[in-house]
């Protein structure tokens, strides 16, 4: 068996020792071994100092005996081992358990804080405050709407009362031989309650008797000048209408400007009706004492005729 070994030594002593060992092994086995080839580098001069360079020598030998090969390999392995290997460095002592636990506790992520309750994407207190503000604003808006609606409704009612009062002033004393029937019907549409009953029973028959024959040339004309609306609620209202009245008879003409007629109105069938009327300075008691029982102003001829403009 042939083996080839390589050996690198760092100094001249190792080279000499290796050559001596090879010579001893070749002498007993000269008859059975082939000449060995060795290339040695010239012996390096002895080192004169620690800083001198070391030369490396490669020794090659051929060994055919198994036992000798084993011995050579064993010696080579022994020489390869360092003479004084440093002891392994001592491991650092482990930290005390409590400190490790403390370090582990620091490394662990902190548990997330408990989620705060939210409403409408906001924290609960802010959401509640927002809801309260919205509720207050909504209530205020409803109140304003109702107030505006109430004012609009009241304005509409006052306008309706003023319209009836003005129409009543235009027909209150506006009769002649050609229009008395139409005027009676128009007046009855504007009246209601006790005033309507008294008008039908007392005033209307007297007007018919006056103009029925067609021989009367007397006439009455009334025109509303201004209307003042008083209190108005859901069922009752008051108003004052200023009326200019003119009367014409064969004896002459009379004028009664700026007559004030106080009216009491009530809502009957969803429409405003005049239920009472009072002349200026008149009330229920003095009206009952009226001998004529008339509910409309009457024109009496003046002592001296007045020309119309």
From TrEMBL:
<dbReference type="GO" id="GO:0016020">
    <property type="term" value="C:membrane"/>
</dbReference>
<protein>
    <recommendedName>
        <fullName>Mce-associated membrane protein</fullName>
    </recommendedName>
</protein>
<feature type="compositionally biased region" description="Polar residues">
    <location>
        <begin position="277"/>
        <end position="293"/>
    </location>
</feature>
<feature type="region of interest" description="Disordered">
    <location>
        <begin position="1"/>
        <end position="112"/>
    </location>
</feature>
<feature type="region of interest" description="Disordered">
    <location>
        <begin position="277"/>
        <end position="309"/>
    </location>
</feature>
<feature type="compositionally biased region" description="Basic and acidic residues">
    <location>
        <begin position="98"/>
        <end position="109"/>
    </location>
</feature>
<feature type="compositionally biased region" description="Low complexity">
    <location>
        <begin position="294"/>
        <end position="309"/>
    </location>
</feature>
<feature type="compositionally biased region" description="Acidic residues">
    <location>
        <begin position="62"/>
        <end position="71"/>
    </location>
</feature>
<feature type="compositionally biased region" description="Basic and acidic residues">
    <location>
        <begin position="1"/>
        <end position="10"/>
    </location>
</feature>
<feature type="compositionally biased region" description="Low complexity">
    <location>
        <begin position="17"/>
        <end position="48"/>
    </location>
</feature>
<keyword id="KW-0472">Membrane</keyword>
């Amino acid at each position: 068996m042939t083996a080839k070994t390589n050996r690198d030594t760092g100094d001249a002593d190792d080279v000499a020792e290796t050559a001596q060992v090879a010579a001893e092994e070749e002498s007993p086995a000269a008859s059975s071994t082939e000449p060995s080839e060795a290339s040695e580098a010239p012996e390096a001069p002895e080192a004169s100092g620690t800083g001198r360079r070391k030369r490396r020598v490669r020794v090659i030998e051929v060994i055919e005996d198994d036992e000798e090969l084993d011995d050579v390999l064993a010696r080579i392995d022994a020489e390869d081992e360092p003479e004084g290997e440093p002891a392994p460095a001592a491991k650092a002592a482990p930290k005390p358990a409590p400190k490790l636990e403390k370090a582990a506790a620091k490394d662990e992520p902190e548990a997330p804080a408990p989620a705060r309750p939210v409403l409408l994407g906001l924290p609960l207190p802010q959401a509640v405050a927002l809801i309260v503000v919205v509720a207050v604003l909504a209530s205020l808006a409803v109140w304003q709407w109702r107030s505006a609606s109430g004012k609009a409704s009241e304005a509409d009612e006052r306008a309706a009362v003023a319209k009836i009062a003005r129409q009543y002033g235009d027909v209150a004393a506006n009769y002649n031989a050609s229009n008395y029937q139409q005027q009676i019907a128009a007046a009855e549409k504007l009246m209601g309650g006790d005033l309507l009953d008294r008008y039908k029973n007392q005033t209307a028959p007297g007007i018919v008797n006056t103009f029925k024959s067609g021989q009367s040339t007397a006439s009455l004309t009334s025109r509303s000048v201004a209307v003042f609306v008083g209190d108005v609620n859901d069922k009752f209202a008051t108003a004052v209408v200023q009326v200019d009245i003119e009367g014409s008879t064969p004896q002459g003409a009379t004028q009664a400007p700026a007559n004030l007629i106080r009216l009491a109105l009530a809502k009957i069938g969803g429409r405003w009706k005049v239920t009472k009327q009072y002349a200026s300075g008149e009330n229920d008691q003095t009206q009952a004492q009226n001998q004529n029982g008339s509910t409309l102003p009457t024109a009496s001829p003046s002592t001296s005729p007045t020309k119309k403009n």
